[in-house]
From TrEMBL:
Cofactor(s) demanded: [4Fe-4S] cluster
Gene3D superfamilies for the chain: Helix-hairpin-Helix base-excision DNA repair enzymes (C-terminal), Hypothetical protein, domain 2, Nucleoside Triphosphate Pyrophosphohydrolase
Keywords per UniProt: 4Fe-4S, DNA damage, DNA repair, Glycosidase, Hydrolase, Iron, Iron-sulfur, Metal-binding
Catalytic activity: Hydrolyzes free adenine bases from 7,8-dihydro-8-oxoguanine:adenine mismatched double-stranded DNA, leaving an apurinic site
Cofactor note: Binds 1 [4Fe-4S] cluster.
Function: Adenine glycosylase active on G-A mispairs. MutY also corrects error-prone DNA synthesis past GO lesions which are due to the oxidatively damaged form of guanine: 7,8-dihydro-8-oxoguanine (8-oxo-dGTP).
Originating species: Christiangramia gaetbulicola
rRNA-binding recorded as keyword: no
Pfam families: HHH, HhH-GPD, NUDIX_4
GO molecular function: 4 iron, 4 sulfur cluster binding; 8-oxo-7,8-dihydroguanine DNA N-glycosylase activity; adenine/guanine mispair binding; metal ion binding; oxidized purine DNA binding; purine-specific mismatch base pair DNA N-glycosylase activity
Protein name in UniProt: Adenine DNA glycosylase
SMART domains in the cross-refs: ENDO3c
Length: 350
């Protein structure tokens, strides 16, 4: 109990004023937790406000068009979270009459909800004594207790969950869970933690053994894959262009983009125009082709880096597949495309 009391005392004096900490309503807690997965609070907070304003209840979110939800999410990344968010909202609204499951096990059955999110909602909303374990918790526990089991290994996941559960304040799990996450985010930071003023510095094994920079230990990541994208930005009579929706299980499913040709390396114009995929897109129309960016735009995702060239294609045909330039900014697109549009389109189209 000494650990939880020290932690809670620190939290009560240092916690940030965040909107979802002023409620125990599961809709708001669930929304914030989904948004903050792999996202800093500073980045996620504006999106939280936008979603709460647009969709004050789970019914509002459930009834929203999918493209609208994706558009509002645009820029937050990891778009599968947005799709799962929408699917879960529809399930809760239409199958559960708007009531979220009130247990950890029940919450785990929701799409996009894993151990961490279920633990957070169950403890904060329903006071169920289940410990949260996220990146901040891994860091705090591995340092204080000197644990060098890799946090992304099966034994590590079990070990840290068990320890967090053992330390949990069973009488007030909501405060404890929020406190340990906040402590990791603000005090026991990845770089330059405040060890001198840490309430646990007398007990911290990583500080004692000078291993602060080593812990937590993580197994090496998957090798980064390089991909080469060629986007064809059609200019049809200075009024229209062509967009297509991404499908399948790859990145950005459901978002819109310009017609894409993926190649095995960066391609010159004479190489690009010889590809069958290019010829199929042009459909024997007369065209002119111009490279918009001499250097590829490098867009870094967790397991792949995209090297992207934007090609401006001027042609008179293909009108049956066109979208007016005035409508383009209404479509949900990846940040890569959104940044290009902000630079390329005239101000009166934005």
């Amino acid at each position: 109990m000494v650990f939880s009391k020290r932690l809670t005392l620190w939290y009560l004096h240092n916690k940030r004023d965040l909107p979802w900490r002023k409620t125990h309503e599961p809709y708001q807690i669930w929304l914030s937790e989904i948004m903050l997965q792999q996202t800093r609070i500073e980045q996620g907070l504006p999106y939280y406000y936008k979603f709460i304003e647009a969709y004050p209840s789970v019914f509002d979110l459930a009834n929203a068009p999918a493209d609208e939800v994706l558009k509002l999410w645009q820029g937050l990344g990891y778009y599968s979270r947005a799709r799962n968010l929408h699917e879960t909202a529809k399930y809760v609204a239409f199958e559960l009459d708007g009531k979220f499951p009130d247990t950890y096990k029940g919450l785990l059955k929701l799409k996009g909800v894993g151990d961490y999110t279920a633990s957070a909602i169950a403890s904060i909303c329903y006071n169920e004594p289940v410990a949260v374990v996220d990146g901040n918790v891994y860091r705090v526990l591995s340092r204080i207790f000197g644990i060098d089991t890799p946090i992304n290994s099966t034994p590590g996941i079990k070990e840290f969950k068990a320890l967090a559960q053992e330390l949990l304040d069973k009488d007030d799990p909501a405060t404890f869970n929020q406190a340990i996450m906040e402590f990791g985010a603000l005090h026991c930071k990845p770089q330059n933690p405040y060890c001198e003023t840490c309430p646990f510095n007398e007990k911290c094994l990583a500080l004692k053994d000078q291993r602060i920079k080593e812990l937590p230990i993580k197994l090496k990541k998957t090798k980064i894959k390089k991909r080469y994208f060629n986007y064809l930005v059609f200019d049809l009579d200075n009024e229209n262009t062509i967009l297509e929706q991404r499908t399948g299980k790859g990145i950005w499913n459901g978002l819109y983009q310009f017609p894409l040709i993926e190649t095995e390396k960066l391609s010159a114009e004479n190489e690009l125009v010889q590809l069958d995929s290019f010829k199929e897109l042009i459909q024997e129309q007369k065209y002119s082709l111009e490279l918009y960016n001499e250097e590829p735009v490098v867009h870094k995702l967790s397991h792949q880096h995209l090297y992207t060239l934007f090609w401006l294609v001027n042609t008179q045909g293909l009108q049956e597949r066109s979208v007016s330039l005035e409508e383009v900014m209404n479509y949900p697109v990846p940040v890569l495309i959104g940044n290009f549009l902000n630079e390329y389109l005239p101000d009166d189209y934005k």
